[in-house]
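Minutes, methods subgroup
Present: GH (chair), OT, SY

1. OT presented the first of two proteins processed in the latest run. Sequence and structure tokens recorded below as shown on screen.
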Amino acid sequence: MKVVVVESPAKAKTINKYLGPDYEVLASFGHIRDLPAKDGSVDPDADFAMIWQVEDRGAKRVADIARAVKGAEKLILATDPDREGEAISWHVIEALTQKKLLKDLPVERVTFNAITRDSVAEAMANPRQIDQALVDAYLARRALDYLVGFNLSPVLWRKLPGARSAGRVQSVALRLVCDREREIETFITREYWSLVALLATDAGAPFEARLVGADGKKITRLDIGNGEEAAAFKQALQAAAFSVADIEAKPTRRHPQPPFTTSTLQQEASRKLGFAPARTMQLAQRLYEGVEIGGETVGLITYMRTDGVDMAPEAVSATRAVIGRTFGDKYVPGVARKYTTKAKNAQEAHEAIRPTDAGRLPSSVARYLDPEQAKLYDLIWTRTIASQMESAVLERTTAEIKAQVGARTLDLRATGQVVVFDGFLKLYQEGRDDEADEDGGRLPAMKAGEVLERREIRATQHFTEPPPRFTEASLVKRMEELGIGRPSTYAAVLAVLREREYVRIDKKRLVPEDKGRIVTAFLESFFQRYVEYDFTADLEEKLDRVSNHEIDWKEVLRDFWRDFIAAIEGTRELRMTQVIDSLNDVLAPRIFPARADGGDPRACPSCGNGKLSLKIGKFGSFIGCSNYPECRYTRQLSAGEGEGGAGDGGPKVLGKDPETGLDVTLRDGRFGPYIQLGGDAPEGDDAKGEETKSEDAKADKKAAKTKEKPKRQTIPRGLAPDNIDLEIALKLLSLPRPVATHPESGKPIKAGIGRFGPYVQHEKTFASLGKDDDVLEIGANRAIDLIITKEQGGGRRGAASDPGKVLGEEPETGKTISLKAGRYGAYVTDGTTNATLPKGIESESYTLEEAVILLRAKRATGKKKAPAKKAPAKKAAATTKKATTAKKATTAKTTAAKKPATKKAASETTDEGADKPKAPARKRTTKKAAEAGAE
């Protein structure tokens, strides 16, 4: 018997069918070993010695493999053909070696780019040994990520309460998003005008020509900067005589794009299909591992983690044959296309992502696939076929127009473009983030010297716009251009940024959260080198050189660690006042924007003589006055836009309540934006009723107690303040509102917003609304259903009674695994262990294999209960009484001694003017660092 080890059960199942009964194919379920989540797992003082630990889930895999190899003829390692796949095979060998099971057993390494019968057979016939250079590159990356996570993240926790983690690539990707936001905020809009003439030939065919020059000088897009200049040009053009000065028509060719790499697949799937990079890679993994078609499991695409853009010769021939059969010979170029990548640090060891069989049309396999899988396969197939099709032939025509006004000459230009032969455009056209259309229509026939008729002159005002926020696709593209990270890690990096709540997605654009901007500002201030684009790209290049056998991996670590640990040590003397002052400076354009009246943007609008500053508290960051506690003015970080905005300290009037005639205002408090009916409260200036200490308020404090506070309503999460108008505000102020009548009691069921979010209520029974429920629109049937479910033991406490969607049985335990909807999102459970699905994952298409891995990971990281301490033996009554009295006295003294120490420790972390904070014990950081150390 020959034992074969692969990563996943699906891959194992497919390959086992190909190899037959003489082989036993086992899945490792990814890595079987990892660095323990504690300090010392990577020891720089011992030349970066690494301690590996077989995790709980890995122990079962190792035991299965160990059982299989006893008495086996051969061990074949068939993990993926990349760095991670090589590392998984290396870990298997190391674990079995420690068990002394490989003494006389032959070990072979095989790789295949596609899971098809022919590819697997060819790989088995051409085995090799473990590529140690690839393993070294993996070790270097893993060590670097661990060292950054376990050393930099604790600095964030000490200086920025609430910060989650920092990472070697993660933090640089976050900086890209934050830098773009800063560009948008500091962008100065510029006015410009365009002049367009609608002209017509003798035959009466109209076309447009744009003003491009005057009096022998060129006019560029921004040269006409105000309405007066535009009006002068318009007046001149209205009096001008137009004629054709020159016309040129020349053919151009547009060539197809190469087949997909990991990066371009993620970008195009995001643009055309709306898939997040993580989702794209999940779907691609399933297509690679195979689906059952016609009684046989077959991989539909080649390996999906690749930088290569070329295809195997036989694949190119098959693709050209499909083009000829489907579109005709004129769409097949005379010579097959060969592509080379232009990406920085690209490694072209693998083919591009392509169908394993070009003749397997999307329409023929769609019935075997989930809808999302079918869409992705169609995209990959279409791009692959188009990459070998004939170029499109276009005709681009440029007409130079002369406008004569007396002795003055104005120059205009008209352009047109038409498709003469569509070529690959018949099948495919690459998506674009800006959705712009560069192609104009065809110009009418005209000749030099021909007189043109003026139909209309248009002068149009424009304003320059800031660069757009990144989409996930454009961020991946930018990271690849800069050489930051590797394409195979982009999806994971973006997922981490969202999970850490450093960024959010709004209308498909990445928006940095305040937490993410503060972390980036801190790193730029005190660890600038490690978030620089060039530094990160250079480090990636060194790691690639390690995988190419060019440099030693430990030398890379030594060079990095020497300067990095010095930077870490430098922050130990850092006072909180220094941190706050630096963050105030870096974030000034966002948190202290210029005031319309030209006043000091940091002047407190409440007391007038205080200075606004960033405050970092246990529950997040906010802006507060330096005169605290005398002045308790606070607001969120964003100061809003324009005067009277909800974020500039003043209310934004939305309109008047038709019933009371009072103003309805949008305001910004320390705990977020809210709606208020009427004027200011006698006490407080935000939705939490924080007391205002002005002189007038103090004088009228007694009288104020008798006054009624204005009605307020928190804005529910997911509803942007910019989208709130008077109608929505009035609906919010009407909460809680009756939405139904209980079928048994006859009493009302109300909908409202509470401390924990939107809810429905019947007497003392409360039920939280689901993520798809709208508190302003929820109907009677839904409200009754939620209440009845809760009263019958369902909902949050009775979730166990809801079977959810059954995914299947756990292979090891036989327990049924179900997918359920919980208060905090979808989760999977086997009845004992619950594991929440990662953010961004679509629950509808979650598979049993993914659920098994997620649950095993949750069990592996679960806390073990400490054994109960045995009660001491009973003593004599007199002794016990005496000891009890002494213990009470000791406890009282200890408690009294501990209280001031606790208060001091808290102030060291949160107060700006605190003394130098003590470095926390390193062991206390390991729980957070476990997630921070993973890139």
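2. SY then presented the second protein from the same run.
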Amino acid sequence: MADTLQQTVPSQAPGDHSTHDGLIPAVSTGIFVCVHGHFYQPPRENPYLDAIEKQPGAAPFHDWNERIHHECYRPNAYARILNDRGEVIRIVNTFEYISFNLGPTLLSWMERYDLETYQRILDADRNSCQRLNGHGNAIAQVYNHIILPLANQRDKLTQVRWGIADFKRRFGRDPEGIWLAETAVDYPTLEVLVQEGIKFTILAPSQVQRCRPLVTTHGERGDWHEVGGGQIDPSRPYRCFLKYPDGSPDPSRYIDVFFYDGPISRDMGFNDVLSSSQHFAGRIAQAIHGDHRPFQLISVATDGETFGHHRGGAEKALAYAVTEEFPRQGWTVTNYAHYLATHPPAWEAELKPVTAWSCSHGVDRWQDDCGCGGGGDWQQQWRRPLRDSLDWLRDQLSQVFEQQGAALLNDPWAARDAYVAVMGDRSDDSLAAFFAAHQARPLSATERTTALQLLEMQRHALLMYTSCGWFFDEISRPEGTQILRYAARAMDLAGEVAGIALEVAFVERLRAAPSNVATFKDGAGVYQTLVKPSRVSPEQVVAHYAMGSLFSDYRREQSLYSYTVEQQDYRRQRLGPLSLAVGQVTLTSTITRETLTLAFGALHLGGWDFHCGIRSFRSRLDYTKAKDELFDGLGQASAAQTILAINRIFGDRAYGLQDLFAEERHRMMQLLSQDTLLRLDQLYSQVYRDNYGVLRAFHRDGLPVPQELQVAADIALSQRTLEVLHALERETSDPSSNPLRQGEEYLNELDAIATEASYFNARLSLPAAKPMLEGLIWRSVWQLLSHEPSESLAADVDWLGRLIALGDRLSLGLSLERPQELYYQYLHRQVFDLLHRAAQGIQLLRAKQRVQVYDILRLGDYLSVDVAAVRDALEGL
């Protein structure tokens, strides 16, 4: 019986490994497979807020990072292997089995947004280290995807050093390899990699010119083979020697290079190779040499977003391929670092002078009108002027940095290289450690702020070279606009620190960059129309806070994007339709530690009308007098008098609803619309109730229902559903209580509404219901599995089953992924352990425990997890 259980139920917890999970077999067939995913998104944060603003094109998600995360990054960390009924058999962390790099800017976002997935990626590297003799799957990446052959030497060094330091902070080890943005490479770039201790990189087969055996059977160097047309054999690593000034190879300095299999990699992105793991394995098999060589590597590389975002569900095919299909073929799933350690290069390669994987003209895609990235009638003549403009700005900012930084920092450029530690951890302790190492002398708080502003200026100067800005065929695309926003922020910081005005000259240079969009005309038009309005001043932040405070009860200290707002004084008063808030706050940047104290007066006149003034006061007495004057004006119940007082005290610059950050503006618009929508809902509900019998008659006799009555039914039933769901959520949201014991009457009512909606063919509009019900199911599963099984376990499981079925009845398309992940972990850690102990005679399985396990397995049925094998094992005990 123990043997049977061993075959059907894994004994280890998730994260441990067995030969079934891809552990290297004792006898290798000589075929090694390495799949590399380049996971990356361009940085999208507003440079002034350090946060991504809502991007409507990413709907129903908040922004494109969030959308791609839910379509690719999280699904790969929790990849499903399904049976023919769509039930989960296994949940696989594909990052444990593929070579990968994740852009540091993307990981920074993920660390804040989804710590669970972020940690699972780190765990994947650690587990792959254990599986592959200390060689992890993760490799580093140049920090923010700069095309290194086009960067100056100083920026090359910083980008590589930042990438390495960020990798070490996250993964806890030195990187062995590094991914170059767009695999763009030249020999000066390789020299930087070698200098910084990188052992290998990955390139396209089109980037090599010739190769030869390092040593022939006669002990000599072999003859060169010209492979410039992409004929390189990608089944082996190559050694690339750096060169002396005279062009001859330096045998003491080299880096190893893997060239991925071009045809298979292209097919992964553009054909149906990833439609199933069998197709994938079949395509890999076509690349295996039949010449009986003892070892060979089949190496493929593609954008990691291919697995799930570009190709929906491809992460499932990948997960099954690397854990089941490839091992079944006798192939060893490995990574580049491990293969290199066990099979060092026997061949040498020379690269073409300057190349990249996505441009057939070297690296002209990021500097010239080469045609790459087009495909239509649009030109790319803007590329060269854009790069020239940024190069000019970079050099101006470098002068500011050196001149101003020399008085504050021992070595400004060394401090810039080390600043990556602060970028990853902006705590007081991190700042203290940084300044202890790099300050030229003990700095005052003001001087520290100046130093941080200089370093932030340099950070944005590097971000403005992010490759995506040139990748496509129009400067006004979001990617081009974003790098210009970084340039704007860098210029603003230069102005704050050195009083230097660079914007006019910079914008004038952008006039030489012609846009394909007549509205913009050129880069200067793009800058004026799309970049300048995205600037955020401290006054705007306080105005945002002030108007928001009319509808929200802020804490005394409130975080607002990249600022902390501390109330020094605050008073709010309502009089009829008027609401007035007056306050004084200290605004502190969490990035530069710059502080500013500002006062505000914000008046809501009703509806969409707001009037807000911002200014600083020299004394607390002046502020108090101004506050009293404002509330005296309000006491006259005169909107006009109050507005005049705000203008007199705060100046003519007034802020309104349109000046709020988009998301806060939309939130307030919804709040202001609630009363109107409530009245409409009540009206439609009354129409539905008054005509209920008439509606039944129409449906009973199969007659077309008048549109007015059908719309009333749709809205009334949708509103009732949401009201009951909100009540159910409130009833079950208390973390100290058991939600599974509560809400029965609401669940019954929701079942009744679903039946009624089905009878009337109602089109329910329930956008808020899906996340609400998903959250309730997840919390309920967590509550059930995190406590010892109770007497009500069977009833609790049935209650959850009804909740899940309700989602189907309401056609919500519920995602059960997160509760499935909870359940899968519980199955491995608790149920499997119990059954193994029982099978081995270590522990007696009591009748009560057996019943409880059956109930837990029924929960698996409701969650669409395949528990048949576990149920069979239980019955065999």
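Chair's summary of item 2: The chain is about 50% helix and 15% strand.
Next meeting: continue with the remaining queue.
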